[in-house]
Amino acid sequence: MLTVAFPAQAFDTNCYVLAPAPGEECVVVDPGIGIEETLREVLATHRLRPAAVLLTHGHVDHVWSVTPVCGADTAAYIHTDDRYRLHDLLAHTNPGLIAMFEQQFGRKATWTEPSNVVEITDHTRLTLAGLDFEVRHAPGHTEGSVMFGVDRVPDGIGEQVEVDRTTLSGDVLFAGSIGRTDLPGGDNAAMQRSLRDVVLPLPDTTLVLPGHGPATTMAHERGTNPYLQHLPA
């Protein structure tokens, strides 16, 4: 699976591009702030055509560029419980953050809702750009946080670590940490349940591509991540 990851211009949010191979359709995951130029370069380099945009949740740093990436036709997929955030993203964003973006990019922040939004729920199965994804609802960071699982791994990665599947974990699970639960829509009790019921059952051979920071594996996180230790029963 062709996999390209690069950070957004704010918060180092990871944007991912996945495709079966160069020259084919692709899926864009979490197009954050200021990613458009780099994304155009990635698409041109690998001759890719976006077939869909997957959103792990509705926070501004993960969805800011979804509308320009989607254009008029490409669908954006988001969990039902975070769908409301796309109606008026600025209304659900801290005004101080908006002011920071405006200062950084030198223009007034505006928001246009994507024209084609598909709501997804737990265990939804999606076949997009020749790849099969399973949605796992994992609330806690936001009400509609999800992880996307695919039974493929990035080209060459299986030769470096023992993995046979990939999970795009958004802001649920990071290398050595987890997503915050103190922001609007966050819920620590829900996060604990998600870690116990959704994250921990993932096989050790799962490659984890998080919303921020480096990739990791479930084997590594199970053995070292302090937030996965001594979870409530």
From TrEMBL:
GO MF term list: hydrolase activity; metal ion binding
Residue ranges of every copy of the Metallo-beta-lactamase domain listed in the record: 12-212
A Pfam family hit: Lactamase_B
Alphabetical keyword list: Hydrolase, Metal-binding, Zinc
UniProt-listed CDD domains: metallo-hydrolase-like_MBL-fold (cd06262)
Keyword hit for Metal-binding: yes
Cofactor annotation: Zn(2+)
Name of this chain's protein: Metallo-beta-lactamase domain-containing protein
Top-level taxonomy: Bacteria, Bacillati, Actinomycetota, Actinomycetes, Micrococcales
